[in-house]
Amino acid sequence: MPTLAEKREQLLTLIRSFESCAVAFSAGVDSTVVAKAAHLALGEKAVAVTGTSASLAAGELDEARSLAERIAIRHVVISTDEFANSSYTQNAPDRCYHCKTELYTQLDGLTDRLGVEVVLNGANIDDASDYRPGMKAAAEHHVRSPLAECGFTKADVRALAEAWGLPVGDKPATPCLSSRVAYGEEVTPERLRMIDGAEQLLREQGLRNVRVRYHRGDLARIEVPADEIAKLVSAATRSVLAGQLRQLGFKFVTIDLEGFRSGSLNSLVQLTTSDSSAKSP
């Protein structure tokens, strides 16, 4: 098995084979490692691009700017318009496909202006084990996934982030806010503001891995690690949080006794043969 150092060199060699690149940069650990690698490999010929919309959680754009400055990579911020697409807002299980199609279409339109040859994303080989319709959009737009191509697991990515001194090595996964809305429930900016506000409140309680899932009837289903559920059910904390979430617009507030599970809503998706291609990096 290749060592982390060998995978790192393979990653840098792959990116050097491009004349220039744009990295789809969300400030998560995966895209941050790709942005760092792109800057090391290509210098000024690499650019990080962050898409913003109502689905971006509070603070993530500021963190993207800070990380890009730390890496010293050129950084461009664009506004995406996935909410204009009813196929996105209707929130079928392929919602992410329509979101990534919007992002990659915009990036395609920017390649000449930015002077880049190829678009890179942060997908790693572990992503193939979950339902990832956004990868179908990546394939359609010829987006490359250098981490996956070089055999990086999520653990490898976190280890390389630590080795490079990047402050995101232990950052929890931060998918877009729309991923918290149960499939079939309309995605709206107002519902995403409710979710974002609720998750911010929970983080103020010292919780890092947290999801607030939106279900029909303005119901909030809170997921935290199982060993931290007790923090939420003390009389004082429970009463305060329930009141605050109601002020945000939730009518019902529940705690998931199974605890935090990344992508838990995907358990409701029945994968078909055609869906399986969406999981390939």
Gyration radius (Cα, Å) is 19 Å
**Could you please say which CATH topology of the largest domain applies here?**
Rossmann fold
- Can you identify the CATH superfamily of the largest domain? HUPs
The proportion of residues in beta strands is 5-15%
Mean pLDDT: 92
Q: Tell me the quaternary state.
A: single chain
Biggest sheet details: 4 strands, parallel
Count of domain modules: 2
- The tally of helices reads 12
Q: Say how many strands there are.
A: 7
CATH class type of the largest domain: Alpha Beta
Order of helices and strands: HEHEHEHHEHHHHEEHHEH
Helix/strand class: alpha/beta
Can you name the CATH architecture of the largest domain?
A: 3-Layer(aba) Sandwich
The dominant shape is globular
Kindly describe this structure.
By secondary structure, the chain is an alpha/beta fold. It folds into 2 domains: 160 residues, Rossmann fold (3-Layer(aba) Sandwich), CATH 3.40.50.620; 85 residues, GMP Synthetase, Chain A, domain 3. β1, α2 and β2 form a beta-alpha-beta unit. It is globular and about 55 Å long.
